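Lab notes, practical 5.
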Amino acid sequence: MPLSEDEQRILQQIEQQFYATDPDLAGEIGNHSLYAHCLRRMRWAAALFVVGVIVLVVALATAINFTVSFGGFVVMLGAALWFERSLRKMGRAGMAQLSASLRTGGLRDYFGDTGDRVRNRLRPQDDDAEGDNSDDRS
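Output from the prediction step:
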């Protein structure tokens, strides 16, 4: 049932007041989708699955113990179930929104600047060290 003109006008006034009183929160809410929580859980499940695979392969390759390799398999299974459950919670609408945002924004926009942050952390800080040494020599 669509809203009446008065209800639409009242809703627009509330929205304008919200943007006027707290523009930071309004912008933050506008930038996030409803499915961000499910996507975050799916990423954690995928990472946990990879950890389970690594534990399984290393335990079998080095013949550490059969129970350790079985534990890796159990971790993989649990992560796969967690991923599947999060995917079901997201539903078709979430998957459609995710695929549309990936098509328009690309993977770099989806993952953000995570790669740049990791590269900056791993990059040696030689510039600061050289600057300090040159001052001592003068």
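Observations recorded by the TA: The first helix runs from residue 5 to 21. The radius of gyration is 25 Å.
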